[in-house]
Specification:
The structure holds 2 protein chains of 2 kinds.
Chain A: E1 2-3, E2 8-9, H1 12-29, H2 34-43, H3 48-72, H4 78-105, H5 108-138, H6 148-156, E3 163-166, E4 170-173, E5 175-178, E6 183-187, H7 189-205, H8 210-221, H9 225-249, H10 255-278, H11 281-307, H12 314-343, H13 347-351
Antiparallel strand pairs in A: 1-2, 3-4, 5-6
Helix pairs in contact in A: 1-2, 1-3, 1-10, 1-12, 2-3, 2-12, 3-9, 3-10, 4-7, 4-9, 5-11, 6-8, 7-8, 8-9, 10-12, 11-12
Chain B: H1 2-21, H2 23-66
Helix pairs in contact in B: 1-2
The chains are: A mainly alpha, B mainly alpha.
């Protein structure tokens, strides 16, 4: 089938499969899946600029569906999300400036890939390490994390000013309660700084930033895993929308391709988001760690293929590895959902 | 079949011309289309799942009533 904007012929079945994977992982992990979509579309022969633009468009659409699904499950803390969004936009603007400077210096490609490899490798390794550590010590895969004391310290941080003047509200304290996230009191500058950092990294790496934000919320702020997943998606809608607008303005989005993948992603989102009700939070984090690690290995292989001319084939190996691992994790998610649904009712049904 | 092919060709022509001639309107159209499609798909799946769950619950209660 010919896609008029990108000017390429792609088998729609492949797009449907990619959409299904992205929707499932997005609903389960609270990520947009930008790095996965771009990698997949490149393998299908879509020009790189259209792969990124169309990928961001799908990130925006699938995040809307996933966020609404998680909102229905009570997994979205809008107050926390809005506080983070205030920091995301300046972070993205700053990253854009840095990207321009790196582009002028002619080192943007390797810098971004090295940052990706180090970041994904370190993040994935830590999450997998934490999963096994908590499992060994408590024997359960619940919401406990090894950084609980760090999260308590972050929540107790006293950052001046302790009150600010707001139009219409007068003098307002800068500490807020986030009851949905189980946080009694936290300085607004903590979520603002996290939003800024994630916006900066997302802008630098050209991604939605979900793979950074979800672990930050869980391990540093102490937000329960499922709440972090839903709130993260709210943030990705904003970053995805900004990216979509910019790329569409430059005519680098294939609308038809994005809509086909979105239809498939909506089906995957039902599986992924519903599975978060049944699968233990620790297991969600463990699978997320494996996905992030495979992303790191894929980018490292891509960097190798760019730097050594004889190893060009590693480019395809990287994309196939990423899609293969993601597809396998989708099957694991579907399996876990079926097994858990047969074994016991959802946790919220038990508490009700 | 010819009608479908004609519609696809007309759509292709529209997408190519509109995206190159009106960049700002095109960007807004892309965002509006993706957002509205996402909302419609969400609503559709909610209806399908609710119907499926109520049908499943109905069949279970009928089976337990017979038992």
């Amino acid at each position: 089938m010919l896609f008029p904007n990108a000017g390429v012929t792609v088998d729609p079945v492949l797009l449907v499969l990619l959409g299904l994977i992205v929707g499932t992982l997005g609903g389960f992990f609270g990520v947009g899946g930008g790095f996965l979509i771009t990698g997949g579309l490149l393998v299908f022969g879509v020009p790189p600029i259209f792969a990124v633009g169309t990928g961001l468009t799908l990130v925006m659409g699938s995040s809307i569906i996933n966020m609404l699904k998680h909102k229905g499950l009570g997994h979205v803390d809008f107050r926390l999300g809005l506080l983070m969004v205030c920091g995301t936009v300046p972070g993205e603007i700053l990253a854009e400036r840095l990207n321009v400077a790196l582009l002028e210096a002619g080192i943007i490609g390797p810098v971004i890939r090295y940052v990706y490899v180090i970041f994904l490798g370190a993040l994935g390794s830590f999450i997998v390490y934490d999963y096994f550590k908590v499992r060994r010590s408590s024997g359960a895969a619940g919401d406990a994390v090894s950084t609980a004391s760090l999260a308590r310290k972050v929540q107790a941080l006293q950052i001046p000013p302790h009150a600010i003047w707001l139009p219409g509200r007068g003098i307002t304290p800068t500490r807020v309660a986030l009851p949905l996230s189980g946080i009694q009191s936290i300085s607004v500058f903590v979520p603002f700084s996290i939003g800024f950092g994630v916006g900066f990294m997302a802008g630098l790496l050209g991604a939605g930033g979900g793979f950074i934000l979800m672990p930050l919320l869980v391990y540093v702020v102490g937000v329960p895993t499922v709440m972090a997943i839903g709130t993260d998606l709210f943030q990705i809608i904003i970053t995805g929308s900004v990216g979509t607008f910019i790329y569409a303005l430059g005519n680098h989005v294939d609308l038809l391709m994005a809509i086909i993948m979105l239809a498939a992603a909506s089906a995957g989102a039902q599986v992924g988001a519903t599975a978060t009700r049944f699968v233990e939070p620790g297991r969600i984090r463990g699978l997320f760690g494996v996905t992030v690690l495979s992303g790191g290995v894929a980018v490292a292989l891509k960097e190798l293929s760019e730097s050594v001319s004889r190893l060009h084939f590693l480019d395809t190996v990287a994309a196939v590895l990423l899609l293969g691992v993601s597809g396998a994790i989708c099957l694991v998610i579907a399996g876990l959902l079926l097994r858990a649904a047969r074994k016991k009712p959802a946790p919220d049904e038990v508490s009700a | 079949m010819d009608i479908l092919r004609g519609m696809y060709e007309a759509l292709t022509e529209f997408l190519q011309e509109f995206s190159s001639q009106y960049p700002l309107l095109w960007a807004l159209l892309v965002m509006a289309m993706v957002a509205s499609t996402a909302l419609s798909l969400y609503a559709l799946w909610e209806l399908v799942l609710r119907w499926a769950i109520s049908a499943w619950a109905g069949s279970r209660s009928r089976a337990s009533g017979r038992g």
